Amino acid sequence: MNQNLEHIARLAGVSRSTVSRVINNHPNVKPETRARVQAIIREQNFRPNAAARTLVTQESNVLSLVIPQAVASTFTDPYFPMLIQSITAKANELDYALMLWIGNSNEMADRFAQRVLENSLFGGLLIAAAVNNDPLIPYLVNVQIPFLIIGPPPLPELNFIDVDNLGAARAAVSHLIDMGWKRIGTITGPLNMGAAAARLDGYRLALQEAGLTVDEALIVEGRFDEPSGYEAMNALLQQQVDAVFVASDMMAFGALRAIHEAGLRVPEDIGIVGFDDLPASASSTPPLTTVRQPIQEVGSLATQMLADLLQGRAEPPYQKILPATLVVRQSSGSNSFRWSSGGGVDSH
């Protein structure tokens, strides 16, 4: 049966507005009237329309997750499925539904932002992998919709959760230096993304602290995917690098392929360190030294933080930075220790 508010009101012998007040827990309803309406609702198995309820209460139990990336790259990089899974699990635990928005490389950023904002069902947004000058962010600030960025924020006063990208990259490059490598290149992520820029800053800082020259010819920009890692590594091989810090494991897998095709060995000829510690990193050839970032913890905490903002348990700016861990395996030339940006060195 296609019940509506009028149908419930007629059966209960009350007005439509009274049914609406009962559904939305309005205090100005007599107890006996509330009980009668609730009994009819249960008998009719009535489910209020979510959009209508949102318009009445100005509240929503729907969260939006926005990933301003092309669909193909989102689902070929295990990072995003792991992040989405953890966000979904936490949203379910908190009794929120999740709406997923994934950018398309063929769509203008302004149009994508408008499509997101034209939907009024969500109460707040999570933005993963935000890019600089993303038009969605100033729109959200202007209309005062609660949102939280997963990764470095483009503006310091925004809500965000991140890992220690700079510190972890610095430790990764310092480890390569400690292993005796001298001509160390890097494959960055897209430099319009805060995480990629922070990891490049960590690379530069480690070289400078060791008294090594930062050679711009040894810095090649990638796209956080395997093909760009392969292309960038081929370019670095022309520069005769002896080691490379790669800003994601997916790009590192491409770099390993390029090195092997060139007839070189890892780590005998070239040392390599990645970033993410994806499940495949421990079984690559050779096993990949990499920075382990707590992807699932980030997703879960991001969802909890947004819920805290929506329910008034936290005030903006709400910000958190989690430690990252350097897991040392064979690809860098040693398997003797593990560094954590939270402090300390662990055996591995």
Kindly list the characteristics that best describe this protein:
alpha/beta; 434 Repressor (Amino-terminal Domain); Rossmann fold; six-stranded parallel sheet; 14 strands; elongated; disordered C terminus
3D architecture notes:
This protein is of the alpha/beta class. It has three domains: 53 residues, 434 Repressor (Amino-terminal Domain), CATH 1.10.260.40; 128 residues, 3-Layer(aba) Sandwich (Rossmann fold); 152 residues, Response regulator (Rossmann fold, 3-Layer(aba) Sandwich), CATH 3.40.50.2300. It contains 13 helices and 14 strands. The protein has an eight-stranded mixed β-sheet with strand order 7-6-8-9-10-12-13-14, with helices on both faces. Strands 2-1-3-4-5-11 form a six-stranded parallel β-sheet, with helices on one face. β3, α8 and β4 form a beta-alpha-beta unit. α1 packs across α3. The protein is elongated, with a radius of gyration of 25 Å.
